[in-house]
User: Fold these one by one.
Assistant:
Number 1:
Amino acid sequence: MSNDIWILATASLVAAACALVGVFLILRRQALMGDAISHSVLLGLVLAYLITDSRALPIMLGGAVIIGLLTAWLSDTLSRIGKVQSDASIGIVFTFFFAIGVILVSLYAGQIDLDQECVLYGEIAFIPFDTLHIGGGENLEDGFEIGPRAFWAIAVVFVIVLISIIITFNRLQTVAFHPNLALSLGVNIVFWHYFLMTLVSMTTVASFDAVGAILVVALLVIPASSAYLIAKSLKTMLWLAVGYSQASVAIGYTVAYQLDSSISASIAVSSGVLLFLTVASLQVQKQRKRAANNV
Amino acid sequence: MTGFELFPPPSLWQNWLSFWRFEDMNLLWVLMGSILLGMSASVIGGFAFLRKRALIGDALAHAALPGVMMAFLLFQTRDPLVIFIGALCSSFIGFFLIDWLPKNTKLKADAALAITLSFFFALGLMLLSFIQGLEVSNKSGLDKILFGQAAAMTDGDIKLLGYVTIFVLITVVLFFQKFRLIAFNQSYARTIGIAVNRYELLLALLIVMSVVVGLQLVGVVLMAAVLLTPMAAARFWSNQLATILIIASLLGGFSAIISTQISYLAPAMPTGPWMVVSLSILFILSLLFAPQKGLLKRYFDYQNLRQKVAEENILRTLYKLLERKDFKDKPFTLADIQSFRNMPSHCLQNTLKLLEKKGFAQRTFQGITLTPEGFEKATQLTRRHRLWESYLNEQADLSPEQVHQHAERIEHILTEAQETQLQQELSNSLHDPHGNQIPRKAEPTSVERGGEKI
């Protein structure tokens, strides 16, 4: 039973962190960059592990942030210097990084406890078995068990994301809604762009164990888009996005339990279904308004 | 002891040799199939690229996944045609969704792409995990379409792949003119009566078909790169669409050969990532070394231009110095030049050395003088500079203070013909807006003193 609670807690933290970051991705029209970073983070994770031989959180975050920023910078540079359209340059960079990541995973499959499956789905059902211990030194079994590693990873990142958004709320708001105004006020747009990319990289890498590289795109983009459709201000959009993400976790978990399907995929699917319900109800409203106007 | 060494495992080299001797006939078919796929995907991806929808292939490939799973779930068969049709249907739904969302809601095109991609993929994975929990036969290997496995393709798969890719290639060749017109100038195509929407649909169908047959080989996740990267790389090699597409298809085919080999030599390796890595390396090579548009070539061009500008600036400075001395052949020092033109010493020294080599300047103990050729060149440059200044002043109504900066740039790139044209247009003006005489062509320059503003 306690395993289920850990799984649910991890899933809802992952969904909430992704939704918060995703709001800014949608507003800055960087949804594809989110897609790209969530793919290339795999390479950062694998390289960090192969180089340092450690799975400590700071190292994982460091590797992911470096590769994430590199993806953003390379796509930008490529489209400027190589005169390639910006979406094409994003596509070229992230597929390259992701391909190298997958090759490394298959080469060192014995050493890294990642496999191709886990890259795609994550293994949220197994996270309770990989726990963190405090104290006890070398012998892990002696320490005091404090819960799954993945839970603490996403908890730390969630707190970082939340604090960053609260502290820099005004700046992020200006940059998201009025990039030109921000520019004329002397705000360093490039800095805030990479700041956002750092948050995205950290969130995706911390979500990696739970939901894998590709489903995280769904959690980044879909709840934030649903919120975007109905919200009238940035604050409501953030709250709504988190609300949508929590609802999808609840529905997805139930569905997965019933169908015995992958939990993370079911969560992503239910967030999509919620989005389509939102779109459909908005369409119906529009139709009604039009009908009312015609009469 | 030696008995154990009688059958050593075949080395990589031997494996590679046996690959190219095609001891396994099936392998030849896989190779042909993957080359065809690489070619057709590159060509059709090229049109998606031109329509500024470079990542559409990514979304469509992801969108095919639930179709594959549904087809398997409904018909309980791995028949390639059934799977193909299932994937085609769900890819098409994805395609329309990507189109519909930005048109009918507040959502932007990039968000629509990311939403469709991730939602369909999640749906596919959910169905896959559901299937894996079911008690049905021959469900193993369904997950191979995520990353692609050339070695795991069946005869049926390869036949279908062959038919579809050849169909795609032939269609593109047949409708090449129309596709090209639509890609570059849609509104013109519409005005001359081409049914643009119908061809757009055909193009979409071809893209979806290439993506769907490629799944076995390259995998859902990386199919985007096979559509996109060859075109992006080929663009550095030519400006002609037909040539670009042929180069793209060659790059696609070549990377298919590499990845199929690797998949054969190391069966645990997924094919798709290797194909993408080899394509990316080809892209990087093209970006750097392409003969006309590569970065290296552009860098050298830029350096040459800078060098040329520096040389010409010094020639003109020397001319102005001479003009001040009433063209009495007097040598000048470095300090004289630097008082007119702000330039770091070492740069000045290097440029002077080059000028000497080209026979435009001479260095003696007294200082630097222009050779007759150098003087001619310097006169020509000054003439162009002042002609342009006058032209701007008269025709563009710029004040004399404004014209210098423009002329400073254009003097290096004006051609002989343009110079004559300017001269004809300004036939009656002998002086530039600053009051300096414009040196005449093919005439002994008359001597006039004047100080030019810099």
Number 2:
Amino acid sequence: MTRPELFVFIALSVGWVSIGAWAVRIAVKVNRLSDAMASPGTTATREGPR
Amino acid sequence: MGRTKALLGPARLGLALASAGIVLAILAHWMIFAWAPIEATQGVIQRIYYVHIPVAWLAELAFTMTALFSIAYLWLRDERADAAAMVSAEGGIYLACALLVVGPLWGRVAWGTYWTWEPRLTLTLLLFFIFIGYFMVRGATRDPDRGKRASAVVAIVGVLDIPLIHMSVYWFRSLHPEPVVLRPDGPTADARIVLTLLVSLAAYSLVFAGLWWFRYLAETGERQQVRRTPTLLPQGAP
């Protein structure tokens, strides 16, 4: 694999990895919110009310 | 279970958008590697174009959305507008990170350097730092509403950098080429290159829209849940 081919592979991966990283963050948020909704009295944020 | 279902109900739109985007992404990658021609002057490295342009477009769109929702928040003081602005900025940060990795890889092969302080690169880095600042300002105040107002102002001022990024190739000496697709006299690139770019743009945009909608629902749901949760502090506590 030549350097340009390697860079193209890395670049195409980085684009989707960044989207994937955001998707993981969203999934964690949704999961925490779902847990908080199931057990009243707990907040969905780790930081507390904003 | 019922509450989880209530949470997932409106999320169907996000799921549909993201799924359509993933299908288009598979098609886009087939087009990139098997259908689009190898560009004559740059060779294989030009294929970075099919990720560079979508992440740049979406990062700038996300920051523009942040500014527009920030204007709406300052005007209407509607929590949903602030949530939409914050969610857009968050998505924009992820895509700007990708842009700032992908661009230098292309630069290393095309220009012989990963980074140079040419106008478009410098202004793009500035935009990234402005929106990092957006989140720093939000978290820096004791009063959350004050933080929201201050960050809205940062977003509105910061978005003025985007027209500068676009015009920099005309106004200053720049290593970036002038546009080859969005030109008044039509695209100069091969039709298959343009079509592959459009499919890749559509794929990224649909996935982004789906994730944005999920994140917005999570953010508004979280804020409602926090409001419903009784505070443990006694009344009148600072």
Number 3:
Amino acid sequence: MTAARRPIPHDSAPRHVTGSARYIDDLPEPEGLLHAALHLSDRVHARIRSIDLSAARAVPGVAAVITVADVPGDPDIAPVVRPEPVLAQDTIEFHGQPVAAIAARDLATARRAARLVKVEYEDLPPLLDLAEAVEKQSLLLPPLQLKRGNAQEAIARAPHRLNGELHLGGQDHFYLEGQVSLAEPREGGDTFVHCSTQHPSEVQKLVARVLGKPLHSVTVECRRMGGGFGGKESQAAQFACIAALLAHRTQKPVKLRLDRDEDMIVTGKRHDFLVRYDVGFDAEGRILGYDLLLAGRGGWAADLTGAVVDRAVFHADSSYWIPDVTITGLCCRTNTVSNTAFRGFGGPQGMAATEYVIDEIARHLGRDPLEVRLANLYGKTERNVTPYFQTIRDNILPELFADLLASSDYRRRRQEIDAFNAHSPHLKKGLALTPVKFGISFTTSFLNQAGALVLIYEDGSVQLNHGGTEMGQGLYIKVAQVVADVLGIGLEQIRITATRTDKVPNTSPTAASSGADMNGKAAEAAALTLRRRLAEVAAPILGVPPDGIRFRDGMLQGGGNVMSFAEAVHNAYIARVSLAASGYYATPGIHFDRTTRRGSPFFYFAYGVAATEVLVDCFTGEYRFTRADLLHDCGDSLNPAIDLGQVEGGYLQGLGWLTMEELWWDADGRLRTHAPSTYKIPTARDLPADFRVRLVNGKPNPAETIFRSKAVGEPPLMLAISGWLALKDAVAAAAGTQRVHLDAPATPERVLLAIEAAKRKLAAAPEAVAAK
Amino acid sequence: MSEPVRFVSRGQVVTVGPDVPHTMTVLEYLRLRLRRTGSKEGCAEGDCGACTVVIGEAVYGRLRYRAVNACILFVAQLDGKALFTVEDLADGEALHPVQQAMVETHASQCGFCTPGFVMSLFACFHHGVTPDDESLKDALAGNLCRCTGYRPILEAGRRMFEIAREDRFTAMEAALLQQLGQLKRTRMLRHSTAAGDFLAPRSIDELIETLETLPDGKSWLLAGGTDVGLWVTKQQRQPRSIVYLGRVAELQQISDDGHAVTIGAGVTYADAFAAIESLHPDFARMVRRLGSVQIRNSGTLGGNIANGSPIGDSMPPLIALGATITLRGRAGSRRLPLEDFYLGYRKTALAPGEIVESVTVPKPGADSRFAVYKLSKRFDQDISAVLGAFHVKLDGGTVREARIAYGGMAAVPARALRAEAALTGASLPDVEAAVAALAEDFRPLSDMRASAGYRLLAAQNLLRKFALEANGQRIRLEAAE
């Protein structure tokens, strides 16, 4: 029996449910462990005049208090673009920026001392508003603009034209396990760091940098994270570095764990975007010209914003052929927390913008948005070149639309909903069906590489290690399934080991949905090397050539003879053949030239379609999602149970982003939604009451991926765009006009105010909607 | 002299000495002292459920299992009870039916929230009734999961009883009850620690006497701890003493004289639920959205009242129903209408040394129409942006008497007096005069929960909606779904 393509439970599932799966804060505490706390600035933008640490240092039990001046190496921990000091240097750039760090014998003491740090400031004028940042061209990086043909000319020539503005809110990751690191000084000046991170190699690099040491003196380990979602891609490093600095200073192990409020105040979020569009189209709603501005809020520092905005720009075509197009992405600088990677990485914002515009076009023409989507959909062999000139060769959207239209009974329900709405004055239903096309690969091309290490021990048991990290997405079990099948052994023979920088070096973050694609391939390569070696040893004994041997069910089979895997391993050991192999993978054929703005940045695309129905209370703007039908493409799924979990979980997380999850800053630039009491992520009730989810069957990935599977981490999040546009549909029904505007997150308040605004518009200018 | 706190865990009586500070939470105690790290800290404010544990108590000779948030529960609150944590469930390698169901349905991804879900479902398991979808969603409303989208967790809740109807804890119930019987106290608990004292008087007289001995302003009254717990975990405050109301017998009583229900200030929402339901099903529906199962198992109606928060959800319906509260002090008892209890933002009519003893709520009559509407960004376990409670008495279709109260509209939960006046004499469903008067009654604030504009508009629309519902229509999302 093979392991891949079967719905095998997560390798840690029995440990999750018994509470025996260890997270970093659960590890047995090393002798002499100190606990760390941060002093956060209460200013939004200010120059630091002086820092007085004496009161904090005087607290009994405090072992060290440090500021940026105490960093022995380079204090800059920018992942891409400097400067991003590990602790505030000269100025405060956002409310909550860490200024000092304390290590003490217990957490309460550390936190008490943190409050005693005294800082004198000279306030500076802050820039808080995204629109103002666009206006003033306050940018972190140069813009990226994709251009084909002449959008403005095409728009001017088009029979219909619409323009407008839209705001898409940000989103806190709300991983259940907050940021945490435990750093231990080891002999010879080495440092060992347990870090809840998606990117151990970068943590290693930055810890080495702040300590002023070579990378070989730092080892980083991550067995598992209690959720990541992008929030621990670049931003785990700061806390690892602070823990390491305190450990270095005290020569004792130091643990830094943020509490929930600190975590939400100090760490970056999904970028909120200001969108401005100008679109020309024909009577069927086919887009003829499109000029789109996507302004993302990077916050005070670049972090990964360049790549996030790139991906927004790359996904602003959504699933549609646009002949004449200009898409401009801005990385805006404001005095707010530095935004970062979050599942979808800009893609959701780019796609949501254009799905909104499609919806606007349909409403302008009085057509079902579905028909306008179908009219604009990318072709299979023509109308299939993206605005960055990559030809789409794997488009399965026409089939997915047909499949979901039938299974969701969309057209009949559309009529039923219209009939319901005609007779229900106070409760209105809405329905929307939207596609997903998501490009797979890091757009920063060099990151598309991975390594693995497979060790076979003399008894035939196997240890598996690779550069990918486990954050709940089931990467470890998927890669183990690959190795089990290559070696023809059972999963129970494979021990999955924690991700560590001293086993596989120079790894990329587990991000961009690429974990299984890349680490699966790297592990496969390592396992194939070992299989070849074993086959060569076994061939003379079995009396067949090495490539005539099959590895299956724990046996080597060939020429009618069999040998157990353990026996083959033993033979190889005796024959002095290496039983350890590393594997390496680099995604082939991808490139993008920023100067010509052309290339094929993506190895392939993952697809999906979703239809969501909602019911709105027109008195209050409250709503319930009553039904959702999801159809998602995982190629030949490596593990359908794990992949289904990604699809379902991604959808609900996306729905949270677009509906109830509202980040609220006050006029002084302070985040006021920094705990679950004020920041609301979906609960079990918020799952659509009737939830029908399927994976696409029988469509292996045409690209040569691991067992022809497809990446699944991010793409399903965007299926939730259908939920937001279903709300917009219901708002239109409630207001009695197609001219509606609905920003995200579409909280009950925004829904009610959208209904009221549309009603006012209708009353003021009834002729404006006569087009319908 | 300090007395140890005693509770039962894994069949053993655990004795907690003076080395455990009076404000140490159960979660800290588990993780730092006992090194049982299965229960997690996700928020330290009772909102995420990752720390969920189950408390066993003897009630009418049976063991009652209730899920609570360990992050805002003080260790001394465990006195006399049994504690179950996620590590206790499996029998060696054999998983508990709840755990097995969670594995089979692929209900864990990152696993950090999982112990909390397991414990919430473990409590459900011991309620013995196969939960339907709605009651499962109620049961899990206090557990956040960021990975799965919940579908497989709900499936695990449905499947657990297919695996087994009983577990080994059922078999050990008699022995545990006997153990708990031996922990019963005959004198009040005084757990004195270097950091401060935890006192648990057993009668109201003992309580009043205890309060007299304490210096003003340095001790806290503790009911459920769903707010007080946060003063410790979020604000790092430390009182000299904590006086716990959970053992004061008189405060735990509920009575019903046919016309009115009286609920003791120490009664948890969970225990008050049936009484609240007898007042009006809409009140009960609202309470089911107040906090979560874990919060309602700890939090009390009296605590919600005494807290004085402008956004406490219980006050508007109580005020609309004409509730009175009884205060008790050294000088004896006094009663006043609930709305007169609130003097200003978090300011109440409580005199020093005085406590809230009970609340008395008249039952609406046959000529009454009553409704409560709670508005929040999220349906479950969210603090209201606006909460409106409406109560009218009708002569035919004409309003004879109206009481309207809102939360979230002012510095205190407050009646809409001008709107009430305008509504009196109105013929339903025409309430536009009263709707207009609401704009005179309230000048709400903008904050992270809602803008002032939305608050007022929604408050007005709720009155419109009530007028239609009082007139016989039913306009509910859950009904039309």
Number 4:
Amino acid sequence: MTRSLPLVGFLLLVALFGFGIWWNTQHDPREVPSPLIGKSAPAFDLPLLDDPSRTASKAAMLGKPYLVNVFASWCVACGEEHPVLMAQGRTLGVPLIGYDYKDDPADAKAWLAQHGNPYDLVVADREGRTAIDFGVYGAPESFLIDAKGVIRYKHIGPFTPEVIEHKLKPLIAKLKQEAP
Amino acid sequence: MNRALLRALATFLLAFSCLAAAQAIDPLPFKDHAQEVRFQNLTRQLRCLVCQNENLADSNADLARDLRHEVFGLMQQGKSDDAIKQYLVDRYSDFVLYDPPVKRSTWLLWFGPGLFLLFGAAVVLVTIRKRSRAARIDSRLVDNATIEQGDDW
């Protein structure tokens, strides 16, 4: 028994480290869990990118679910995500709100003109103040907000067709059932 | 000659390291030195969300600068350190704290090493007991030294 103890210890460690490796392939260690899921979205009142004299606010958006997609013209991963949103944005069944994060409005407009605009509405947060309330720490990030203004889901990093199909769309379907 | 070269190199390096440090710290209008110390202390306990192995005080990331300004602003409003930490935890979860709080989900993290130590101690204790028992039996039995002694380990 005591003879096999080192072997047992070794195998336990192999199992532990193996589990660690497996865990890290399933989870992005850079992903910060959002404490805001299931909580009321922070109040916001942000100017529209196209017309800064008008704003979009949380209060005005209440009543139907919507998806907020944080993007920026300087963000490389947003460029990867963009074709997916162009292809699928209109098929989601909820308004897609672009959230231009810490970006020069001129750059953002040029970027959207060049790559296409998948958004129903684009708000601009040049200083990133409101983004801090949302717990944004990079782009792209996306928030699914329900009709009552509660954040139901957050996706960190670019949307892929798989994530949209298997995570986002079922959630949107559920929200629509709650508040048709 | 060589020494002059070395000196030049040292001066060069020193100058640049100062430059780097000066760039990392953006000047904030602190009321007094005590407040600055408090600010430095607090930002050192907070994690930069972008470059996650750096704290807010050291990080050069854009978001880290924004959050430093946020912390500074909250300090001006008279918020306590705990209130400021809670403000950030509400937005970025416990992840933003370098010291994870003791709660159910972090019990293993906090007490796991202790458990490992206890487990190791138990193994050592059992082994010692076994050996001393074996030694006692041996000494009773043995007249000659030819008995094969198993290696416990």
